[in-house]
Amino acid sequence: MKKVILTLLVVGMAITGFAQDTNDKKTKTISVNGISEIEITPDIIYLNITLQEYQKDKNTKIDISTLEDQLTKAVQKAGIPAENLTISSVSGDQWWRKKKKDADFYASKEFRLKLSNLNKLNSILDGVEDAGITNVYISETTSSKIEAYRLEAKIKALQAAKAKATVMMEAIGEKLGGVMQVIENSTDVIHPMYNNANILIGRFKSEAANTVADTNIDYRTIKVTAEIKAVFAIQ
């Protein structure tokens, strides 16, 4: 999905400028700013998943290798390339036993999973022991075509500047001439902020947790903005 919003209004304009042509004659000019904003749906999503060992019962400990194997197989079953799953960090907690003579180390690993969408998220998480998942959150979103969208935003901003200058000149009975100068003021990519970045949503704490759908995740678009200053001659 992509939505283009052109903003033609800008704080100020100037028709006071003059430029020297090749015959040393002064040319009247108009300087305007054009702004554009493009909204795009991200097709690259980085999901961080933290797994931690736990004591299933008095005699059974689910170790990190078991949880990692479950996650790897779930990712593979979902049809996601193995290289899309990487280890982000490794840590652990120590819980001291009686008299503090021995330590039981509960290892923890955080994985970074690259996805094109979240459609298979629940099926992936379902393949791992619920108690072994301690955190899941969206760490980053972007687009595989982000540079193309940057360029498109600049073009739209320049077109907006020309359209505005044309309207202003027609309003006072003048004609717009050719462009004399183009300055890129700014180009920004605004990534979405998720109110519920931690998307466990009680999934592993509620009896009805498995009914939670992926569509409940606060999913937002990326915004690419550009502002161009253009100076046109007045005929």
UniProtKB/TrEMBL annotation:
Key words of the record: Signal
Keyword Acetylation: no
Gene3D superfamilies the UniProt entry points to: Protein of unknown function (DUF541), domain 1 (3.30.110.170), Protein of unknown function (DUF541), domain 2 (3.30.70.2970)
GO biological process: DNA damage response
Stretch forming the signal peptide: 1-19
PANTHER family named among the record's database cross-references: PERIPLASMIC IMMUNOGENIC PROTEIN, SLR1258 PROTEIN
Descriptive protein name: SIMPL domain-containing protein
